[in-house]
Amino acid sequence: MKKIGKKTSLLFLSFLVLTMVLSGCKIKSSKTSSDSNKETLVVSIFGFNEDLYRRNVMEPFEKKHNVKIVLELGNNVDRLNKLKMRNSKVDVAAFTDYYAMQAIEEGLFERIDHEKIPNINNLYDVAKTPLGKDYGPAYTIGSFGIIYDSEDIKEPIESWGDLWRPDLKGKMSLSNITTTSGPMMLLIAAEQAGVDIKKDEDKAFEKMKELSENVLRFDDKSSEAINAMSQGKVKVMGGHSFEFESVKETVPTAKWVDPKEGSYAIVNTINIVKGTKNKKLAEQFINWIISEEVQKVQALDKVDSPTNKNVKLTDKEAEELIYGEETIEKLKSVDWTYVNSSLKRWIERWNKEISD
Predict the structure, then answer these.
(1) Which end of the chain, N or C, is less surrounded by CB atoms within 10 Å?
(2) pLDDT per residue over 325-341, tens digit each?
(3) Residues 21-50, buried b or exposed e (16+ Cβ, 10 A)?
């Protein structure tokens, strides 16, 4: 009897251990199942300041709506090409206006309902419908101007016209025609030639050819120009406002110039991808990223310049940002519909006449 009782006890103990193990597996499985059952929103966006975007934008949205956000990170070109393949799982996509317009012309974005994204009403006019009333707003704004090293360039640069100065020969990096700011340089060349590019393209290219004599390199990525400045290979670059701090870190004597003729506005737009099954959630996300709450914290962290006009910043907080109605209204805009319709022709001429 004693022997049988001992065996029974061992069997009972084994049963308890097995039950605990199985129970533990079930709890773990249940947790995984719970996470997998959450609605998922796939957001295609730039890789800049990923940690701050996750902290300020993504994680609060996930918590508020009990959803999971998956990020697809990369530059404009790579992410747009993925969308063009039309097998993307992306629900919401952020692009600069130049690339967003290409996506619209390819039929890659859904038309939006402004009533379902009420925070659009709180944006500066330039940010409400930057690419037409049927498409998404701008969640941040930047400008295209000039960055130069004042230690090497003793005579201050104050205008776009100064880029043609003889003392800048071989000291400059400009963007290639296939980038966001490449077509802007061609528009600037037309202005310097005193012509409307829509009426006299030849003179614009002639003026751009003159400028190319001062250009050491045409870069395809902003990181390439920034590295060239940091390494001292070039002393002047056409740059976006958000790039200036990166240059300043390695070139303390770098200066930012808003040319007297005016800087060009560059806006990052946010749109709903065609065919998404999460349109309502996508609308909520767009409304979130342009909300006063998110725009304020992004501005304070110097991540994005706010497009929500309800965001109030002190002079100190606004440093290094494109901020305020007066500043934003001075920025020049680009007719991206015309640019994109001309781009194939411009690229062919650019490759033959400018960057050969």
Answers:
(1) N
(2) 999 989 998 998 899 99
(3) eeeeeeeeeeeeeeeeeeeebbbbbbeebe
